[in-house]
Each structure stands twice: as structure tokens, then as C-alpha cells.
């Protein structure tokens, strides 16, 4: 995992983060503790699902202001990548269509298909593709919002509930307590 998470030095050297680089020097942003990591996972998952571009930048800036672990927030945005992008966006569209109404979604899909075929015949496939992408906007945006919020909350709760103190700390505490008896 450490090889995929950007180092503090890499983040400080990023030209995109130059406006907030002075804030990245805060030591609390780099500690791996339950609170900081849970917030960071929630932030990273939110921006990973919500934004198709600049996810890393928004996650890092938000992590700085919410005092979450910056590296974990940046790494958590990788939930969406070139391999997961198509299924995630398909799922988001399905969720958005379902929320907006299954019947309406089916009617919209049939109308969209007919519209794309007509545009393709009249204007060419590129313009038809662009129009079809625009027509999917509302269900897709709604689905992405649902995925972003849900995954953010679940990621936060998962880290919060599953976080365990390091074994060395428990052993040292136990030994200190048993020496007194």
C-alpha cells in the first residue's frame, strides 16, 4: 500500500498543490490514527466517485481543511480509475434512473435510442454520441451523488469500526500492568 500512496515530499512538490503547500507542513495531516484515516477515507471516496477529474486535488485540499490524513485521502480517490470507470458510471446511471423512476427511465432510454439513430443519420456519430451523453446527465449525476455520499459514509464507518490499536501498544500496556502484581 505504501508504494501507491504519495509521500509528503511528492505532494509538497506538486504544482497543483502549490497554493496550499504551506498548510501541508502540519504534522497532524500525516499521522495515521483512527480519526484522521477515517476522515481521509470518507473524503477520498466522496471525491473519487463524485468528480471525473481533479479528484486528487479536491481530496487533498479538503483533507487539509478537515485535518484528515492527506496521503490516505489522495489514495482513496483511486476507487475510480480507467478500469473501474465504466462499471461505476454504468451503476451510477442505473441508480439514478431507478431513483427517478424505472418506468420513466425505460421511456427515456427508448426515446434516447431513437434520437441517437436519427442524429447519427443526420449529423454523424460523434454528434449523436455527444447528445446521448448529455441526455444521460440527470440520472448519471444523481447516481454519482448517491454513490459518493453512500461510499463516503460507509468508508468512514468501516475504518472507524474496524480500526484496532497496534499489537505492540497492547503488549506494552499489558506488560506494564502485570509488573505491578
Automatic annotation (TrEMBL):
The chain crosses the membrane at residues 40-66, 140-163. It holds the Pfam family DUF2062. InterPro entries: DUF2062. Keywords: Membrane, Transmembrane, Transmembrane helix. Residues 17-169 form the DUF2062 domain. This is DUF2062 domain-containing protein.
Amino acid at each position: 500500500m505504501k508504494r501507491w500512496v504519495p509521500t509528503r515530499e511528492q505532494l509538497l512538490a506538486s504544482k497543483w498543490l502549490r497554493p496550499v503547500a504551506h498548510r501541508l507542513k502540519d504534522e497532524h495531516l500525516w499521522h495515521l490514527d483512527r480519526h484522521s484515516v477515517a476522515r481521509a477515507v470518507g473524503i477520498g471516496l466522496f471525491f473519487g466517485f463524485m468528480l471525473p477529474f481533479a479528484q486528487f486535488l479536491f481530496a487533498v485540499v479538503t483533507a487539509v481543511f478537515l485535518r484528515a490524513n492527506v496521503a490516505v485521502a489522495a489514495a482513496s480517490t483511486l476507487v475510480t480509475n480507467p478500469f473501474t470507470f465504466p462499471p461505476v458510471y454504468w451503476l451510477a446511471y442505473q441508480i439514478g434512473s431507478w431513483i427517478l423512476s424505472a418506468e420513466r427511465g425505460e421511456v427515456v432510454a427508448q426515446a434516447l435510442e431513437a434520437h441517437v439513430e436519427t442524429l447519427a443519420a443526420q449529423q454523424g456519430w460523434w454528434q449523436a454520441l455527444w447528445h446521448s451523453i448529455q441526455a444521460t446527465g440527470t440520472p448519471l449525476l444523481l447516481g454519482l451523488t448517491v454513490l459518493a455520499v453512500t461510499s463516503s459514509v460507509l468508508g468512514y464507518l468501516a475504518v472507524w469500526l474496524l480500526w484496532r490499536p497496534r499489537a505492540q501498544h497492547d503488549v506494552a500496556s499489558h506488560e506494564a500492568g502485570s509488573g505491578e502484581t
